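We were asked to recover a plausible sequence for a given structure. The inputs and outputs are reproduced exactly as logged, with field labels preserved.

PROBLEM: sequence recovery
POSITIONS: 187
GIVEN STRUCTURE:
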């Protein structure tokens, strides 16, 4: 494993910190008038998503982790596993449902997703930033329901539930932001 000094830090770099793989989100080199220089840093634990912050002496070395992302096509799920295919080599892999997690609500058959690996170990599945999904269930909108900012719940074809404006009806295809599950527009 390669090592990196605090002098070579960059935002987005992945290091091993206290036995955990973390991505550096912010860092600041500090040289006080009295005493030795140090680095104040914020990082995100890859597995849990928690944000950690700490200060370390300048010049400390950390092991680096090689991050890799692979674009894969989502094929289907059989209830317990999710199946993905590499669009270049046509190799297929299956992932247990607990490994896919909440991302499953944004996966539509034949869409692409990004599988994230750290040193060959699968970390998770990242869907596209925006997905287009059909509304399968929602309350009907009535003529005159035009209150600004008023929303209602809707169930999408993947089972995800989102808040949508009153004018959305069953059968509409919506663009959804997968980062926060927010309605963007009707297609």
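RECOVERED SEQUENCE:
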């Amino acid at each position: 494993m390669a090592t990196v000094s605090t002098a070579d830090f960059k935002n987005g770099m992945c290091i091993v910190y206290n036995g955990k793989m973390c991505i550096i989100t912010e860092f600041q080199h500090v040289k006080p008038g009295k005493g030795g220089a140090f680095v104040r840093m914020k990082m995100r634990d890859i597995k849990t998503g928690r944000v950690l912050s700490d200060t370390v002496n300048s010049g400390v070395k950390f092991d680096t982790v090689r991050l890799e992302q692979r674009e894969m096509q989502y094929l289907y799920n059989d209830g317990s596993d999710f199946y993905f295919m590499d669009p270049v080599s046509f190799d297929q892999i299956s992932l247990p449902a607990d490994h896919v997690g909440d991302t499953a609500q944004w996966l539509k058959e034949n869409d692409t997703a990004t599988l994230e690996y750290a040193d060959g170990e699968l970390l998770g599945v990242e869907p596209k930033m925006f997905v287009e999904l059909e509304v399968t269930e929602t309350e009907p909108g009535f003529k005159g329901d035009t209150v600004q900012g008023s929303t209602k719940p809707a169930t999408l074809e993947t089972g995800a539930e989102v808040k949508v404006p009153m004018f959305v009806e069953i059968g509409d295809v919506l663009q959804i932001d997968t980062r926060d599950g927010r309605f963007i527009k009707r297609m």
